[in-house]
Specification:
3 copies of one chain form a homotrimer. By secondary structure, chain A is α/β, with parallel strands linked by helices. Chain A has 3 domains: about 90 residues, 3-Layer(aba) Sandwich (Udp-n-acetylmuramoylalanyl-d-glutamate--2,6- Diaminopimelate Ligase, Chain: A, domain 1), CATH 3.40.1390.10; about 210 residues, Hexapeptide repeat proteins (UDP N-Acetylglucosamine Acyltransferase, domain 1, 3 Solenoid), CATH 2.160.10.10; about 30 residues. In chain A, about 20% of the residues lie in helices and about 30% in strands. Chain A has 5 helices and 39 strands. A 12-stranded mixed sheet of chain A has the order 7-10-13-16-19-24-27-30-33-36-38-39. Chain A has a 10-stranded parallel sheet with strand order 8-11-14-17-20-25-28-31-34-37, with no helix packed on it. A 9-stranded parallel sheet of chain A has the order 9-12-15-18-23-26-29-32-35, with no helix packed on it. In chain A, strand 38 and strand 39 form a beta hairpin. Chains in contact: A-B, A-C, B-C. Chains A and B meet through strand 22, helix 4 and helix 5 of A and strand 3, helix 3, helix 4 and helix 5 of B.
Chain lengths: ~350, ~350, ~350
């Protein structure tokens, strides 16, 4: 990894040059883990104890944190998360990539078109009439089907499978082990067996999408399963046939979107969320981890729970459920009391 | 994709030849998406608005739908879903496959037996004594272990791994990225560590099974993990060691079946369902998405919820839970009322 | 598979030699499935019916089971599970492996260091400066990134991807289709798009870890995502960036650990459990299947439910929930009764 001096990092963060500006910094770490050549960060008062004990060469601190008097080098910034991201961008080592051109151990169909400046690694297979744009990298073991179109400056990590007739925009990242274009899960009972319903559609992945590892995005029954521009999908997510996802969504690990469900723009789904088939989640809506969304969700609402409810309602119900065992006891007691009252009235 | 005339499609659907029977149709799409050269469909009254606005060349409509007077070409059929499936079968383009024979970039063990008419693609590895039946296709990057037996007319999509000694029937489809035959997850604590319990069994996949992408089916501790004939498994499903699945089941995405669980015939499990180890789900039973099945389920019952309950009971409980916060308030109120009554009686 | 005589197996189990000690035994199976040349086992009274009907050559029985008088050969042992594991170890056929050395169809970087006695199979790719220890096996289609360090006697099954700069200890097993070192899922909204936060850390897998198939373990934002020694991870598990897992944990299939969550030593997580980001699960704690852990869990506690609660509390709440619909009816009845009482008092 590259290294920087304290002074260089101060300048990057628009902070005054510290004492010992020439000290070499080799990376970033948490307050607990940072060594004397590393930078760390303090985002909230909750970590002040760790701040005092830290061995870091310097600490990036949010302006909102009440940093105590210290001899330590502190870079005070408006937003520590953003500052850390900026520093990480400098430290980030380049991703190792196969050299531009087609590796001798790749198998590329004669009718495929690999742009100048694209890189095709070893053990890669590219099908007939497939197109790969300039700057795009196909890492080792990737399989690209016939008639696939991949835009420019995409990065397809090892052992990804992109089945026939799929289209990817520009600057798309697909992480290792992911599969695009499996037939949608559609059968009809013909009296003796589940007969396969042909899935003749495709998958369209728009510009600037990133897709995690071991994600499955199924081919549409007809027309296209679609992932909107700038959407980010975490690992092990299942996306059924004919799902349409809007732009700039965030879909966390192990989410499952059943067939023909729709997400608007800027939707955020927490880990392990399930969305029922044909359900629509409106623009800007978000769902807490593990929610099961069985009905349409209005734009800009927050839901949680199984089944998913408006978040506040879910919190209220959960709080009430915590008190339910006691409520049953109180009910027994009150019933007994009322019976006694009744008796005492009848006796009067 | 192939194209058809309107007249050819009318004949396929047993409908009278329409006006303009020579018009060329290029595919199928939803009412909202279909262009003037595409066919669409109307399965329920709910979509009548879309029907009026549609640009499709013709619309397949279920007899039960009250289709309004229209100059549009409408094919009235008993079952629109079935009719669409029939049309899709005609439009379905063939799956691109490696040519029959063994690709020069495949590695096939000298003792493996590849039937005439089987196709082994590039970067495929086939182990010692493995047998691959006629008509079977091993797509790019597939890895077949020693002593595996694969029947006839199977299709194994790219980068699938089938470990040693697994057996597949005929017409089995395994989608990209799936792994069969990993050791079952079994350990015993030996006082200092989790010692591995050998998993010496196998996996048997019967005829006409389809398995999705990134599915994991583990090898049995002994004897076999078994997938019954005609069963269909969606993506990202986990099937533990010694699971036995009956024929014609439907297992939707991200389901997890723990070790030694059993599904009868025709069981349907919704997405993300979990089944506890050693639990039996009876013939014809079905479980709603996200159910957690912790106890045996009787045949032909419907369950839902976490934990899974009879579906009607779950609906009743959920409806009651929606009213629980109000119930707590009512309880407080009633307790106060009873206390007042009591006081007023004592005062009398 | 190897075979043994009944007498050899008796000796292995420290049992007296049976009548017919020379009979050949070919394997182990359940009481229902075992044939006349197989061994079976009886771990509890619940299976006595199956014991009577069994065709097995001999049965291993736990001392605690009240085995009836029988002419059948029975090996009585303290712990049938342990005895079966011991027998399975003998019957276990060796895992087929590529021969030591580098296969001619592998692509190993000139600067990689493959120890003597390591085996690199066909279609494997090993990156620059990677190190592979003695006795380690890289099965077909494995992709090892630049600067990866793999210890001794590891086994990496087919099509696994280990991205750049990851470190594995000794005797690590990684099952087919798993991906280590994908970028953690981290973005910041820059006003117009989700900008990627560089993930410059790594993954460290300690000695004697086993990882299932299609597991995703993400690279840390900085420093390392860490899997403690002797921990065992089942299939389809998601492990986010900067997660730290202690030694000797058991993580069952489809679990999801969000970023920066921490598991202590000896933690057990049932299938499909979710752990929220930055949450700590204490040493020796365990969580029932499908739990959603949203807050820190104290050491040696058992939790279950969504959200996860102390297990006994969850059982109490679930029992109360079963009675909630009836409680609502009782409430209506009691309210009516109190209204009547009130009226009758006012009338007096």
């Amino acid at each position: 990894m590259p290294t920087f001096t304290l002074g260089e990092l101060a300048k990057l963060l628009n902070c005054p040059a510290p004492v010992g500006a020439g000290a070499v910094i080799t990376g970033v770490a948490t307050l607990q883990e940072a060594g004397p050549q590393e930078l760390s960060f303090l985002g909230s008062d909750a970590y002040l104890d760790q701040f005092h004990a830290a061995r870091a060469a310097a600490v990036i601190a949010s302006r909102k944190v009440r940093v105590p008097e210290t001899s330590r080098t502190v870079f005070v910034v408006d937003n520590a998360d953003l500052a850390v991201a900026q520093v990480l961008e400098r430290f980030a080592p380049p991703v190792p990539r196969p050299a531009p051109g087609v590796d001798s151990a790749a198998r590329v169909a004669a009718t495929a078109v690999i742009a100048n400046g694209a890189a095709v690694g070893p053990m890669v297979v590219v099908g007939a009439r497939a197109k790969v744009g300039t700057g795009t990298v196909l890492h080792s073991g990737v399989v690209i089907g016939d008639d696939v179109v991949i835009g420019e400056h995409c990065e397809i990590f090892p052992n990804v499978v992109i089945r026939e007739r799929i289209t990817l925009g520009n600057r798309v990242i697909i992480n290792a082990g992911t599969v695009l274009g499996t037939d949608g899960f559609g059968y009809r009972w013909d009296g003796t067996k589940h007969a396969k319903i042909p899935q003749i559609g495709t998958v369209v992945v728009e510009d600037d999408v990133e897709i995690g590892s071991c994600v499955c995005i199924d081919r549409a029954k007809f027309s296209a399963t679609r992932i909107g521009k700038g959407t980010k999908i975490d690992n092990l997510v299942q996306i059924g046939h004919n799902v349409v996802i809007g732009p700039h969504c965030i879909i966390v690990g192990q989410v499952g979107l059943a067939g023909s469900s729709r997400l608007g723009a800027g939707v955020v789904l927490g880990g392990q969320v399930a969305v029922r088939d044909h359900v629509t989640v409106g623009d800007g809506a978000s769902a807490g981890a593990c929610s099961a969304i069985a009905n349409d969700i209005k734009p800009n609402t927050i839901v949680s729970g199984t089944p998913a409810l408006p978040h506040r309602q879910n919190l209220r119900e959960q709080a009430a459920l915590r008190r339910l065992p006691a409520l049953l006891d109180e009910m027994r007691k009150l019933q007994a009391e009322v019976a006694l009252l009744k008796k005492s009235i009848e006796e009067k």
